[in-house]
Amino acid sequence: MPASSPGNTYRGRFAPSPTGPLHFGSLVAAVGSYLDARSHDGLWMLRIEDVDRPRCQPGATDDILRTLEAYGFAWDGEVLYQSRRDEAYRTALEKLHALGRVFPCACRRSELADSQIARLAGDGAVIYPGTCRAGLPPGRTARAWRLRVDAARIAFDDTVQGGITQDLAHDAGDFLLLRADGLFAYQLAVVVDDVEQGINHVVRGADLLDSTARQILLQQLLQLPIPVYCHLPVVLNAAGDKLSKQTLAAPLTVAEARPALVAALRFLGQEPPPQLVAASLAELWQWAQMNWNLAKVPRCRSRNLAKEFEHAH
Fold first, then answer.
1. Among 150, 166, 188, residue at a domain's last position
2. Which residues contact 235 (CB under 8 A, 6 or more apart)?
3. What averages of pLDDT result for each successive group of 10 residues across the chain (313 residues)?
């Protein structure tokens, strides 16, 4: 449900994708971003990242909103839906095209994956080898549009992960802005949406750390403000895989809201006093907002879930 906090300058956000229900990994990201915003007397915005329509599940958005409310989250302003913002993304793409930084690409995903020179970026995407950068091959037609990265080297200071430097040409390559299916790519959408919502602090999972340099490059080219970035450790399951819908992470349940919140706080290095472990959800939130300390968040990209979740029950 919306909350009102006028006059604040800190603006954070939580941006789940409606590809399924929220799970414990989602909760950790939501708790970290929410508490960092509230501890600064700031705003916490909500965005539904449904730009990738084919992956979205019917009813998932409503389920996400109900779960957040049941767990005691209160967001500011109206929810922003990426699926309604194609015109804003198209305007940004046209600006990049006018700068000479966009080119058409005829390559299919299967062709890139089968290439003998194919390399993978940190997020698992195939690094584009530059096939169409100098022009479309004879007889081929454009299927998508990419950003010409050139010699971009991006450095930024992450509040949790420390100094990060990325050579985009080597580590990411020319990346997609408009996909072959006519949908805008996540990297462009998130940059445009952060400006629309006035976001100046991005607190999210470290699985998105490798995307940050690409987003900063887009912000620089479009002359947009660059937020403060903070990437929290990603939750791993017992097998050492990222907790996600793809690894069959269990959905959050209302019945386990209190122990799950305790587990999320512990995962983030925030230890409630013993007398609060059995407290109400409202009491836990009150303590968490008053005692949130970003310096206690573990300085790592991932952590195993087992101990935090076990102690919460």
1. 188
2. 24, 25, 28, 242, 243, 267, 302, 303, 305
3. 51 97 96 98 97 96 98 97 98 98 92 66 76 89 94 95 95 94 97 98 96 97 98 91 81 94 96 88 96 97 70 45
Domain boundary among the residues 188, 206, 238 is at 188
Q: What is the DSSP track for 270-284?
A: ----GGGTTS-HHHH
Give dist(CA 191, CA 199) in Å, integer: 10
How many Å apart are CA 171 and CA 188, to the nearest integer?
18
Residues 6+ apart with CB under 8 A from 89: 184, 188, 189, 192
One domain for residues 141 and 9: no
Q: Which of 37, 16, 9 is nearest to 190 (CA)?
A: 16
Phi-psi region of 130 (alpha: psi -120 to 50; beta: other; left: phi over 0): left
Q: Are 163 and 183 in a shared domain?
A: yes
At 254 the three-state DSSP class reads: helix
pTM: 0.92
pLDDT digits (tens, 9 = 90+) for 102-151: 999 999 887 776 664 567 666 667 788 888 999 998 888 999 999 999 98
Same domain, 32 and 97: no
* Structural domain that includes position 9: 2-85+190-311
Rounded to whole angstroms, how far apart are CA atoms 26 and 193?
20
- Shared-domain flag, residues 197 and 297: yes
